[in-house]
Amino acid sequence: MEILGKILGNPARVKIMRLFLLNKGNSFKNKDIVKRSRVSSTVARSELKLLSSVGFIKKRGLDYSFNSSFKYASSFENLLIVPDALDKDAILDNFRKNGRLKLLLISGVFIKNKDSRVDLLIVGDRIKKGKIEETVRKLEAEIGTELTYALFDTKEFFYRLNMYDKLIRDILDFPHEVVLQVKELSTQTLKKV
Predict the structure, then answer these.
(1) How many other CB atoms are there within 10 angstroms of residue 146's CB atom?
(2) Which residue, among 177, 104, 167, 94, has the nearest Cα to 132 in the 3D structure?
């Protein structure tokens, strides 16, 4: 994100561009863009003016939306919407502060799989739910889209796993990447059940 921010002028522009690229069918008011991108209203106004002037977005009344006829849309999408947009270590560092993390899986938007039920699976003990929510909102601002996540303590996760819970099976049986997995939750344990 830091490199792209430097190349494209600033990190706020990258966040706002990702927001529009990942939500092409949606329109946003200035206050929504500020909230979802986590930038100041002054910065948002300036960036929206610039992006509108080059035809990246359209403005209708108070609403802004992606300009589907923007000539370089696919080029920017390839540059800004990549699976490695966020460093896995950075993701892990953000969540580690929220309790004793035992399993962190990424899927969905992180691996460009639109069919995934969740983007994040978080398992741990003494998890601070408010902090998890805050961390997810921070990631959403970086990525530019809302994230769906599932959060379980270890005991509940094993219970659901042993009961062949559909959500857990869908997450584990379909494409995902492991960011963190303690020995207790080894791949063999997860596959045996």
Answers:
(1) 13
(2) 94
